[in-house]
Amino acid sequence: MSNPVITHQPGAGSYGTNVQTGKWSTGLCSCCSDILVCALGFICPIALSCYTADKYGENVCLACVPGGMTAMRTHMRLTYGIQGTICNDALMTCCCGFFETCRMAREIRIRNGDV
Taking 50 as the threshold, does the pLDDT of residue 19 lie above it? Predict the structure, then answer.
């Protein structure tokens, strides 16, 4: 018996939804577009981080690990086809933590159809 000849490599599996916009669905300061996320983030930012990790399918403890939100933002960006760099991910989560966590939560809710 002869082995079949492989003529092409299988494609990479798709992640997330088919919505590949190349950019975030909302702006960094668009907190008013989802009042629930904004309120939770304002009252208890760590609760919003844990909520975001959970809705994204990660362990809620990821929000408490140094660099955890940066790693999640990077993975989210790659999964959703959003342009950016790891350096940008680190800067956004470090310098704009509250706003970026709100944006990540909004992105998940929009792509999951929760909004």
Answer: no
